[in-house]
From TrEMBL:
It catalyses: (6S)-5-formyl-5,6,7,8-tetrahydrofolate + ATP = (6R)-5,10-methenyltetrahydrofolate + ADP + phosphate. NCBIfam families: MTHFS_bact. Pfam families: 5-FTHF_cyc-lig. PANTHER family: 5-FORMYLTETRAHYDROFOLATE CYCLO-LIGASE, ATPASE INHIBITOR/5-FORMYLTETRAHYDROFOLATE CYCLO-LIGASE. Its EC number is 6.3.3.2. InterPro entries: FTHF_cligase, FTHF_cligase-like_sf, NagB/RpiA_transferase-like. Keywords: ATP-binding, Ligase, Magnesium, Metal-binding, Nucleotide-binding. Its cofactor is Mg(2+). Substrate binds at V64, E69. This is 5-formyltetrahydrofolate cyclo-ligase. It comes from the Bacteria. One of its GO terms (molecular function) is metal ion binding.
Length: 212
């Protein structure tokens, strides 16, 4: 996806705000072809399953990819087949997240905003604090681990809840290669992630060694 990385570097011009950067990154995603989505999804699944923090986890909090998000469907099924307890989010009216166990693709139901959610028992917003690894959606990340989300604040609450509970699951963001940026604008409530997984590889966040 070299052409997409070059597009990000040369075409997306933003004024330092998250909104403009989101707009540009979503435009790039909209241009991904079905073949690119399929290839990147397979590679992302392979990379994520090989990550020790995922491979050795007993419980993983994840999400169901929709639209042109980096694909997670195969990853969810592979984790479940391995006997991993997979938790999926359920969007609440206030944009917070409840959680329920993933019981297979036939137990996913259509929800608002085009989302797919698990149909099983709701476990409560604090269920995520029992996860060994938390997989996060996003639009971009930088070398400090600062993640750009879609702006709803749902996963900001998740990261804050983990911090408040004093637990330390590994926080992994799943992205396309071109969404690893030199800098992502941040606000005081933003929390960093620990690991970035893309179809092209794995990067561990180190504030003293920024990337790309």
């Amino acid at each position: 996806m070299t052409r997409h990385r070059e597009f990000v570097r040369t075409v997306i011009k933003y004024d330092g705000t998250k909104g403009e950067l989101r707009k540009g990154l979503l435009a790039v995603r909209a241009g991904l072809t079905p073949d690119e989505l399929e290839v990147s999804g397979a590679a992302l699944t392979h990379r994520a399953l090989a990550l020790p923090e995922v491979a050795e986890a007993g419980t993983v909090a994840a999400y169901v990819s929709v639209g042109r998000e980096p694909g997670t469907r195969a990853l969810l099924d592979a984790l479940r087949e391995r006997g991993v307890r997979v938790l999926l989010p359920v969007l609440l009216d206030d944009n917070d997240l409840d959680w329920a166990r993933y019981e297979g693709p036939d137990r996913l139901v259509r929800a608002g905003r085009g989302l797919l959610e698990p149909a099983g028992e709701r476990l409560g917003p604090d269920a995520v604090t029992g996860a060994d690894t938390v997989l996060l959606p996003g639009l971009a990340v930088d070398g400090r681990g600062m993640r750009l989300g879609r702006g709803g604040g749902s996963y900001d609450r998740v990261l804050e809840r983990l911090e408040r509970a004093g637990v330390g699951p590994v926080r992994v963001v799943l992205l396309y290669d071109h969404e690893v940026l030199a800098h992502v604008p941040e606000e005081p409530h933003d929390r960093p992630v620990d690991v970035v997984v893309t179809p092209g590889g794995v990067r561990r966040v180190s504030p003293t060694r920024p990337f790309p």
